[in-house]
Amino acid sequence: MNQTLLVELLTEELPPKALTRLAESFAGTIETSLRQDDFLTAESKKTVYATPRRLAVTITQVRDVSPDKPIRQKVLPVTVAFDADGNPTAPLKKKLAAMNIADIDISTLEVARDGKNDCLFYNFTASGIPLARALQKAVEKAAHDLPVPKMMTYQRPDGETVEFVRPVHEIVAMHGENVIPIALLGLSAGRTTHGHRFLSQGEIGILAADYYAVTLETRGKVIPGFDARKERIRAMLNEKAKGDRVLMPESLLDEVTALVEWPIVYECHFEESFLEVPQECLILTMQTNQKYFALTDLEGKLRSRFLIVSNVETNTPQRIISGNERVIRPRLSDARFFFEQDKKKRLEDRLPGLANVVYHNKLGTLAQRMARVRLLAVFIAGKMGIDTALVDRAARLVKADLLTEMVGEFPELQGIMGTYYARHDGEPEEVAMACTEHYQPRFAGDALPVTPTGTAVALADKLETLAGIWGIGLQPTGDRDPFALRRHALGILRILIEKKLPLSLRAMLAEAVGILSTNATLTDPTKGVLAFVMDRLRGLLRDRGYSPAEIEAVLAQNPDRFDNLIDKLEAVRTFAAMAESASLAAANKRITNILKKSDINAGNVHTDILVEDSEKKLYEDMSAIRPEADRQFASGDYTGTLKTLAKLHDDVDAFFTNVMVMAEDTRLRNNRIALLKELHAMMNQVADISKLAG
Fold it and tell me: 173: helix, coil or strand?
């Protein structure tokens, strides 16, 4: 009979950050094992449960016995099984005995072709196995394969020593209403579990596997589903916010969900005076150390109240609230102390300390690195046409906050604290902003630097890292990228593309390499870094929805600037949708191939050597539209450029239909090659449209 299967392990508190991974592995291994043994149907559905004290899974439509299976087992080749007179050989008798079918009527064995030989096959039906046997194997494998680096060894009450993530107290294994007699870690499975550690008392019997979740929730004060519990917490937080915004990063929400079985949200407060401390410090303290949820108003200003998620529901929560308020106070006091102490020393006065921080043994100290970044940032600022003095000052100070007590306590605040301290020191606002902005974008989707000064320092910081780390041979390999070079490359590309900066990547990289060149251990990284950045660019553009053909059409031009890249891609996309595009792309591909094969150094087109009407017409129309196409290209109207060039569609078709390019007459041949070179140059101003050909 097909019924729902339930397996639950009731444990001591499981590691919260690994909970969902453990649950998915446990449930997934059981499902896979049972499916391989043919206990599941196409309609079988797995549901994973995970709380701080339990891993569980239910699977619908599970058979109690696997189906009988026809088995076709190879015995021996006929030439080995029988002698010349057709009598059974000793090897055949030995093989049949090994297969436990020594008494079989040999005439019932099937003779069939197997490769080049006729062979004997034994056909029989294997009876299905009971669910208990398959489940025993499945849970043992699931327990063994859990993704934990080290199991806990503990002793059962009966003295047996076992290993698991955390001590296991009970096992539930049911098929419908029936208990499945399996055992694990010295425990025999039953139908009883326990609910919430404080809100539930005594054993809870599960009547049937289908009632598992509802029984735990109603009688045990446990919401077993991780996602259901998480969404309840999210809703309760938003309700308690009373119109304010809850700062709830998914990672914090996941961790808190893994810490409670029956979530309740309470509101707490701290003294208003703490709001004098930068709110990023207070928020990080609450989230990192206490797993609290900070609140801001609709403008993003921190409130002096915060929310906690408790595992205890009570009508008199004051002790819980006051206890958490008492716990957070010294944490916030520490943050205020760090802030006040840090302000006593100017950022500039901290700079000598950077000489004591080793950046890399082959690249020197952090002070030496920032000297290089300063030179590169000033070079980039000159190309951008912005205030080089501001950029130089910013590049000098942006890493100084690494030596502050606040950043020492909370490394995540590097840059952010630099901005606060720079403002306190009276530095120009762009210098202060650059302390934060030079790290941007920190991750996919992060904001870009806003100020020109921050932009120049951000580019310099990332380019110096790429060139330096690559130059000492520590480029990424496989999935390993310890210096986050992929992130730095994507950051450079996003800044250049999205801010439409007309900067040469090769020029900036050459300057970075030149500044680094005083380092004797450096190998020129230019070629490798450029290829690496272009690979990241292809991925970035694919993520933005451009096709490989569109991307290659534009990148085939080997662009050095990326400010107009998106405009060119959009133009290519528009052109590709035109009716004329396919034949023009094919013609362009044909021209490319002709020019590759021809080693003729053709000069200008001579109109007096144009003899065929089709080549005359093509040249005349090329000459007529060239001024318009050039004007459109120069103004950045790339779509207009390609649309104008599309007017040559009929002329190009006629040329290849009626004109023999590789004519025997050398003068004709050279002149036609020259014509095709001009056409090729015109058609590929925006992109190599031959890449659009199928």
Answer: strand
Beta strands in 543-679 (DSSP E): none
Distance (Å, rounded) from C-alpha 620 to C-alpha 626?
10
**Measured distance CA(107)–CA(99) in Å, rounded:** 16
HEC profile of 142-159: HHHCCCCCCCEEEECCCC
Question: For 175-192, b where at least 16 C-beta lie within 10 A, e where not — what string?
Answer: bbeebbebebbebebbbe
190, two tokens: 């039953």
Compute φ and ψ for 192, nearest 5 degrees: -105, 145
Q: Which residues contact 221 (CB under 8 A, 6 or more apart)?
A: 195, 196, 199, 200, 261, 262, 313
Tell me which amino acid residue 503 is. Answer: L
R_g (Cα) of the chain, nearest Å:
37
Report the percent of the chain where pLDDT is more than 70.
99
What are the phi and psi torsion angles at 40 (to 5°)? -110, 155
Mean pLDDT over the full length of the chain: 93
The conformation of residue 108, written as its DSSP 8-state character, comes to: G
Q: Report the distance separating Cα 636 and Cα 617, nearest Å.
A: 28
Q: What is the 3-state secondary structure (H, E, C) of 45-68?
A: CEEEEEECCEEEEEEEEECCECCC
d(CA 246, CA 268): 13
Task: Give the DSSP H/E element, type plus range, for residue 500.
Answer: none
Q: Do 166 and 12 meet the contact criterion of CB atoms below 8 Å apart?
A: yes
Residue among 159, 222, 154 at smallest CA distance from 8: 222
Report whether 56 contacts 63 (CB < 8 A): no
Q: Tell me: pLDDT of 512 over 70.
A: yes
Listed in sequence order, the residues at least 6 apart from 63 whose beta carbon sits closer than 8 Å to its beta carbon are 1, 2, 38, 39, 40, 41, 128, 131
Distance CA 517, CA 468 (A): 10
Predicted TM-score (pTM) of the model is 0.81
Judge contact between 671 and 606, C-beta under 8 A: yes
Q: Please give the Cα distance from 272 to 373 (Å, whole number).
A: 41
Q: Helix crossing, 452-471 with 526-543: angle to 10°?
A: 120
What DSSP letter does each residue of 381-413 carry, written as one string? HHHHTS-HHHHHHHHHHTTGGGGSHHHHH-GGG
Q: Per DSSP, what are the bridge partners of residue 112?
A: 119
Cis peptide before 411 (omega within 30 of 0): no
Contacts of 543 (CB under 8 A, 6+ apart): none
Amino acid at 325: E
Query: What is the predicted pLDDT for the residue at 435?
Result: 98
CA–CA separation, 324 and 268 (whole Å): 7
User: Is the per-residue pLDDT at 588 higher than 70?
Assistant: yes
Cα-flanking dihedrals φ and ψ of residue 191, to 5°?
Answer: -120, 5
- Residue with the larger pLDDT of the pair 67 and 594: 67
Exposure string of 311-331, with b = 16+ CB inside 10 Å and e = fewer, is bbeeeebeebeeebeeebeeb
Name the amino acid, one letter, at 250: E
Q: Is 477 helix (H, G, I), strand (E, B) or coil?
A: strand
Is 464 in a helix, a strand, or coil? helix
Least confident of 131-135, 253-257, 644-648: 644-648
Identify the helix (H) or strand (E) that includes residue 133. Answer: helix 131-144
Q: Which residue has the tokens 């060139």?
A: 467
Q: Is the pLDDT score of 601 beyond 70?
A: no
Q: Which of 250, 238, 204 is nearest to 224 (CA)?
A: 204
Nearest in space to 416 (alpha carbons), one of 384, 395, 396, 438: 438
> What DSSP string describes 536-604?
HHHHHHHHTT--HHHHHHHHTT--S--TTHHHHHHHHHHHHTSTTHHHHHHHHHHHHHHHHH------S
Burial (CB < 10 A; 0-12, 13-18, 19+), residue 364, is middle
